[in-house]
């Protein structure tokens, strides 16, 4: 089995968290997503670059000692701004996202805009990310949302991104206020619950699922 190492670069948080008694009607803080580095077979893959480019470079160095040129692939789980803040820190890397999300966003983003330039550079993740890393469709939060699934240290890891906002959202089988299709979002949480030993959520630290692993 392919040996895969993963490290959290930034632990995410939400702009509003109803499990903390906060209202969904206002932002209490700027959001930050959880950003992960996956290392396998000499490859360095960043998933959801969360900080502005300059800070992203600093965080990468602080957490791993790596330089931006050593990142060969950037994966976006979906196209929300907080999940791609730092993508420009990696101009030489291959940028990938699921084709459904690329196509859905191209319908909404106007030609010539900065976002459109990013979309045009993104390649379909279905063409392959790396051996041992599977793409899992987890629609609901947005319809093109995808998670990553891989084995590490004997556990099945689901990098769920916004299919699982935080640990509290997961165990309550709940979805975020901006969810496009709530029923699909709940199904995606259930699908993840069936296979995962460990979950890397979109806006929280990683957590284990009790009794597995
Ligand atoms: Zn999102
Ligand atoms: Zn998010």
From TrEMBL:
Provide the cofactor list for this protein. Zn(2+)
Molecular function (GO) terms for this protein are:
hydrolase activity; metal ion binding
Q: What reaction is this protein's catalytic activity? A: 3',5'-cyclic UMP + H2O = UMP + H(+); 3',5'-cyclic CMP + H2O = CMP + H(+)
What SUPFAM superfamilies does its record include?
Metallo-hydrolase/oxidoreductase
Q: Does the keyword Zinc apply?
A: yes
Recorded hits in PANTHER family, A to Z, give:
METALLO-HYDROLASE RV2300C-RELATED, QUORUM-QUENCHING LACTONASE YTNP-RELATED-RELATED
Q: What family is reported? A: Belongs to the metallo-beta-lactamase superfamily.
Name of this chain's protein:
MBL fold metallo-hydrolase
């Amino acid at each position: 089995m392919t040996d895969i190492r993963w490290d959290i670069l930034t632990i995410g948080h939400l702009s509003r968290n109803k499990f903390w008694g906060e209202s969904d009607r206002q932002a209490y803080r700027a959001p930050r997503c959880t950003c992960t580095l996956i290392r396998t077979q000499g490859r360095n893959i960043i998933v959801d670059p969360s900080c502005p480019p300059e800070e992203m470079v600093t965080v990468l160095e602080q957490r791993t000692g790596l330089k931006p040129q050593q990142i060969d692939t950037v994966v976006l789980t979906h196209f929300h701004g907080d999940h791609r803040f730092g993508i420009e820190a990696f101009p030489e890397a291959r940028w990938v996202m699921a084709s459904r999300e690329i196509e859905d966003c191209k319908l909404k983003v106007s030609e010539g805009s900065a976002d459109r330039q990013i979309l045009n550079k993104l390649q379909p993740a279905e063409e392959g990310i790396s051996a041992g890393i599977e793409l899992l469709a987890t629609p609901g939060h947005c319809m093109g949302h995808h998670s990553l699934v891989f084995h590490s240290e004997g556990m099945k890891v689901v990098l769920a991104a916004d299919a699982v906002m935080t640990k509290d959202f997961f165990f309550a089988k709940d979805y975020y206020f901006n969810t496009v299709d709530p029923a699909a979002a709940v199904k995606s949480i259930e699908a993840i619950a069936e296979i995962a030993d460990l979950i890397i959520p979109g806006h929280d630290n990683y957590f284990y699922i009790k009794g597995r692993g």
